[in-house]
Design goal:
The protein is α+β, with helices and mostly antiparallel strands and 198 residues long. It has seven helices and seven strands, in the order E-H-H-H-E-E-H-H-E-H-E-H-E-E. The chain has a single domain, classed as Aminopeptidase (3-Layer(aba) Sandwich). Strand 4, helix 6 and strand 5 form a beta-alpha-beta unit. Helix 1 packs across helix 3 and helix 3 packs antiparallel against helix 4.
Length: 198
């Protein structure tokens, strides 16, 4: 059985590496982050995002830290301005000359998200390290959370930055609900899962 536990701030460096590996090669992230030193750039960005997410208590990981899911509870998905300012230096260093692309895409994602029904859990990020792929770790970390949300009768929303992940999400009961309206760059579908969907 795969152990799933709540992540702690001490896990941040390992989980930033896990997410950097998971999103290296992702179409949207590859478009937003320069190729030079991309893994380190991604680690820097995910490290900043985890610094905000981990103390909030909704980051879950496998016991070996090779798969992780970052969640936001209903009505709490927007990062406060103060936290954005704290994360800004790491995000700017990570995105470099493509900061405009990153900020533009994040704004488009936020605008689309704001139009969704408010009572839902938001899957901000889910990823598995290269060494853990194909072992069911991502399914385990996702299913663990979906059981809790189903018990509470709450739906789940996410945006997928990689079309190869759509079959994975569909297996877990998600349906594509539309595309994030974007002016440039790769498409990014939004997905919705009603409670109890398998």
């Amino acid at each position: 059985m795969i152990e799933i536990r709540r992540a702690t701030p001490a896990d941040a460096p390992a989980l930033a590496t896990t997410l950097a590996e998971a999103f290296d090669g992702d179409p949207v992230w590859s478009w937003m982050i320069p190729a030079a030193h991309r893994p380190k750039r991604l680690e820097r960005i995910f490290g900043a995002l985890l610094a905000y997410a981990l103390p909030r208590g909704h980051v879950y990981t496998t016991g070996d830290l090779r798969s992780v899911a970052v969640w936001s509870p209903p009505r709490q998905w927007e990062m406060p301005q103060k936290e954005l300012l704290k994360a800004a230096p790491s995000i700017l260093r990570g995105a470099g000359l493509r900061t405009g692309r990153l900020l533009g895409r994040l704004s488009a994602v936020d605008r689309h998200h704001a139009r969704q029904p408010p009572e839902h859990w938001y899957l901000e990020f889910i990823g598995t390290a290269r060494s853990g792929r194909g072992q069911g770790l991502g399914s385990a970390v996702l299913s663990d959370a979906l059981r809790r949300f189903d018990a509470d009768g709450l739906p789940v929303y996410l945006e997928s930055s990689n079309p190869r992940n759509l079959p994975f999400y569909r297996r877990h009961g998600f349906e594509v609900s539309g595309d994030v309206p974007v002016d440039s760059g790769p498409p990014q579908p939004a997905l919705w899962r009603s409670p109890g969907q398998v």
